[in-house]
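G., before I forget:
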Amino acid sequence: MIEISNLTFGYSKKKTLFKNLNLDLQTGHIYGLLGKNGAGKSTLLKNLAGLVFPQEGLCKVNGYDTSKRSPRLLQELFFIPEELHLPAVTASRFAESTGHFYPKFDMNQYYAMLSEFNVPINSFLNKLSFGQQKKVMIAFGLASNTALLIMDEPTNGLDIPSKVQFRKIMASALTEERCMVISTHQVRDLDSLIDSLLVLHQEEVVINRSLDDIAERIQFTNAAQANKEGILYIEHHGIGINTISTNVNGVYTKVDMEMLFNAVVHNHTSIVDILK
Amino acid sequence: MNQIFNLKRFLMLFSKHTAENYKTYLMSAAVLAGMLAVVIGLGAYLSDGKLSFSIQFAVFVNFFLIAGCIFTSMMFSDLGDKKKSIPVLMLPASLFEKYLVAWIYSFVVFQLVMLCCFYSIDYLILNAVKKATEEVKMINVFSTEPRYWLVFVFFAVLHSISLLGAIFFEKMHFIKTAFAFFVFLGFIILISNKMMSSLLDVEIMQSIPLGRLVIKESGKEFLINPPLSSETIVFYASILVIIVLWTGTYFKLKEKEI
């Protein structure tokens, strides 16, 4: 579905954010994209959406070059940026004037999600709070039923109950024909939502694995339960020590994304090597 | 479905643009009409109701060109703002269709609105002053003698420059485009003077590119008018410039990144 080959990109030719980056993403998955501030998460998403053009390489969605921005590509791609601008129309008027650009847009689904998010449909969008605007865009993006849905920091601006609703709605909207890519720096917001993890670090996607794959290869335990010979990373906290170790005995543990992310950004290459 | 132009998709885009901007456009048209009423009314008052063709034409030309350039300069202002540009670029319509909507509003719709506003206000004021003074006729801005219609060609040239400026600059589109235009104009006049001076080896008093030339020799000034054919050349050159700049704007839109 998404095919990135030898992507090199930078806002100036001297300083590149990605060099020869390759990535292959499939439908039927919700990918969580993690990376440090400035690692290029938003820029990678913009490359995927065709909002910026690569210096070298290609970025394709369903076989179409995203930099061409052809209507047949755009009607299967919805991008929710971190910062929004919504026109001075109501949520219902917005759906009427914009929904028909997306062949699979479902008006009932849109209204159902707005209702679940408690967003008034007759208020002017530009007068809503940032969080409410975000909910409108999330509802619209999901109701558009595009093959690819890209979200950049979607939970920014959402309150705690809305984050719970967001996870619930997202999980229900995933189908086998759809691929969702969510970038965030709030790892906990992706808990129980994503099924695959992408970690962007030092100009490369160092991890691109499903959570099941990760759990099959490494385990997340406290020090007492860890595979002592295979400890890859140790993290001290108030009440003890948590570890990441190789999974040799086939015991599946819940992937602690925050810990895994910390290990990667602290250059524990052994973990990256195991997950390659 | 055609990826460059599809009528159904274009109409959807046109109606979306209209739905989201009609309030701003109506307010702008009301402001334009109000300012025309003030200026034409003032002209009628100062001329004791004798609004000559030259006064009417001067008001029309100034409003037409200045308002047209300001309005056109704002057509792509959303693309200068990262937040606003994403929904514009990501909307499933071709870039040609997006360009065409901006072109139709700034070129076709603006001229229609301008003509409607001008003639309505002009008609009302001329009728109001008619009783007090002898009848004054309304100007025909499409007249071929004198050639008032040329203002539409001049507008098209300025429109093409403003439209390119609208996509080229990210902020203060009108000011930056006007500044660039005047710098370019100054440069051309300077070059023209230098070229004429070196070609003719006389003192150049006045040199208008592709226009008349005033030289000074043996203490006497001579006026050299260009041949009639130069007007045709200027006309076709203007058409060429318009087409090149409109096309350039489209390709600049294709290159737009955020």
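Chain B touches chain A through 25 residues (CB under 8 Å). DSSP finds seven helices and three strands in chain B.

More on Monday.
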